From TrEMBL:
Gene field: LOC102722062
Transmembrane segments: 44-69, 336-355, 361-380
Keywords: Acyltransferase, Membrane, Transferase, Transmembrane, Transmembrane helix
Molecular functions per Gene Ontology: 1-acylglycerol-3-phosphate O-acyltransferase activity
Organism: Oryza brachyantha (malo sina)
Name recorded for this polypeptide: 1-acylglycerol-3-phosphate O-acyltransferase
Length: 399
């Protein structure tokens, strides 16, 4: 997602070191775990077709109801309905990763209770790190409530930009003088403790490459900061802003470290099922009151957390695993299949109504596409007009 915003803002607290321009072991981009055969190409095309068709039909038919009509009565129940219904679609991705691609997702560290309101921060290994956080959220029953800070350029992707908007992801420009107000404005609407929220941020601000690592090391050398091999120096302003806006309603903060065996995957690797062979996710739970609130102290604290991540990753590449494995079980194959069938049947019904039923369904689809394009382009969320408890109770009875 590459969206965590903010300047470096580091304090000088270390000695000088010589930067070694060696290729870090973390890149480990060897041969693919599975060969890209013609059968895998065909399967990948089929997966993309299913994902796009189900996403389009569900968004077009359901989003105007849950994100517009229901929101006029209650923002809380609008979000609840949107998260439950579209969380079913999101669960297709862990099903693809773990059951179809046979990727082994290994959780380690501390056992995570199903907290309702959580701020997660993670290292950013590759362009698909954020997708594997869905595997954790699914196991905790909060898949539909996870949100990301993402590059505003991603809001130009067809269909997916609609999904990012209805899920209320936070698009940023990577310019703090612009992004601060955007993040504050978005998060100000998420302070209702009744709304479950899993907000994921990547303090490095971009995915890891050897070139970026060299620049990070040079910056660390110039400013007396720890020289890190496997992660980039974190940016702290975005995380601090999120913490300040949500601190009063947060249940916990999760420190997540992600690593891959034997090759770093990209999006097409996930689609074709060629990589990764294993994804390792290490989690540490942090109490909110243990995190410093001043910018200087938080900067030092975050750098120390990433120094620990760097050590964790170094040990991972030596030993092949994180400590304390086995904190989460496997996802249910039967539940995944039942959810897949329900999504496909719903999509089939919506497609039939669109293509072979009344002309009014075609009018609805066109109007829905216009509405979604408009609200996504202008980043509009309809306000709640009926604010009385009776209005929310009425919506509650319909769920």
């Amino acid at each position: 997602m590459n969206g965590s915003s903010g300047s470096q803002g580091h304090n000088v607290n270390g000695g000088q070191k010589e930067v070694q321009h060696n290729s870090p072991s973390i890149l480990n981009n060897g041969p693919r775990h599975r060969p890209l055969t013609p059968m895998r190409r065909c399967r990948g095309v089929a997966c993309v077709a299913i994902i796009l068709s189900t996403a389009f039909t569900l968004i077009v038919y359901i989003a105007p109801i849950t994100t517009f009509l229901m929101r006029l009565f209650s923002v809380h129940y609008s979000r609840k309905a949107t998260s439950v219904l579209f969380g079913m679609w999101l669960s297709l991705w862990p099903f693809l990763f773990e059951k179809i691609n046979k990727t082994n997702v290994v959780f380690s560290g501390e056992s995570v209770p199903p907290k309702r309101r959580v701020l997660l921060f993670a290292n950013h290994r590759t362009e698909v790190d954020w997708m594997y956080l869905w595997d954790l959220a699914l196991r905790k029953g909060h898949l539909g409530y996870i949100k990301y800070i993402l590059k505003s350029s991603l809001m130009k992707l067809p269909i997916f930009s609609w999904a990012f908007h209805i899920f209320e992801f936070i698009p940023v420009e990577r310019k703090w003088e612009i992004d601060e107000a955007i993040i504050q404005n978005k998060l100000s609407t998420f302070k209702d403790p009744r709304d479950p929220l899993w907000l994921a941020v990547f303090p490095e601000g971009t995915d890891y490459t050897e070139k970026k690592c060299i620049k990070s090391k040079e910056y660390a050398l110039e400013h007396g900061l720890p020289v890190l091999e496997n992660v980039l120096l974190p940016k702290t302003k975005g995380f601090l802003c999120c913490l300040q806006e949500l601190k009063s309603s947060l249940d916990a903060v999760y420190d997540v470290t992600i690593a891959y065996k034997h090759r770093l995957p990209d999006f097409l690797d996930n689609i074709y099922g060629t990589d990764p062979s294993e994804v390792h996710i290490h989690i540490r739970i942090i109490k909110v009151h243990d995190i410093p609130t001043s910018e200087d102290e938080l900067t030092d604290w975050m750098i120390e957390r990433f120094r620990q991540k760097d050590q964790l990753l170094s040990d991972f590449f030596m030993q092949g695993h994180f400590p304390d494995e086995g904190t989460e079980g496997d996802i249910s194959t039967l539940e995944c299949l039942a959810n897949f069938v329900a999504i496909v049947i719903s999509t089939g019904i919506f497609l039939y109504l669109t293509l072979f039923s009344s002309m009014w369904f075609k009018v609805y689809v066109v109007a829905s596409c216009v509405y979604l394009t408009f609200v996504t382009y202008f980043s509009i969320q309809p306000p709640q007009l009926i604010c009385s408890p009776q209005g929310e109770n009425l919506v509650k009875k319909t769920l």
